[in-house]
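Lab notebook: predicted structure, single chain.

Context: the supervisor wants predicted structures on file for every construct in the current expression panel, including those that have not yet been purified. This is the next one on the list. No modifications to the sequence; it matches the entry in the shared construct table.
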Amino acid sequence: MELCAGQYRYLLCIYRMEKEKNRIRCVDIANDLGVTRPSVSKMMKCMVRMELIEADYCEAVRLTSTGRAIAEHFNLDYDITYAFFRRILKLNPAESKESAFLFLSAFPESTVKKLGTVTSRSLEHIKKSRPIEKKS
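Prediction complete. Output recorded below exactly as produced.
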């Protein structure tokens, strides 16, 4: 399923909020993403049509089993892509977040996996090359 960067943001936001809250409201999503409530409502309608969230989102936003499966897969890709932009390219957190979403929505999964491999190797190399600090 092809998702745009905005849909990725919302899906990941809802997925991560589900782990923290029993009930997610549209206003919670708006506050987390820094968007307006009408924007959230519009995206929720789109995500219902895509069968990513349940249709009764006015009461509480809940992922469907399809939405959850995509979000779980996406969450792993997002974490490694964010690490690339943040820890290797040294972008600030906001730039890293935006760049990760744009990268994930613009490139095929095979490219994302290759970036993941390169990032993992690079982070291991960085970790090994750091001198061990002696405790006094």
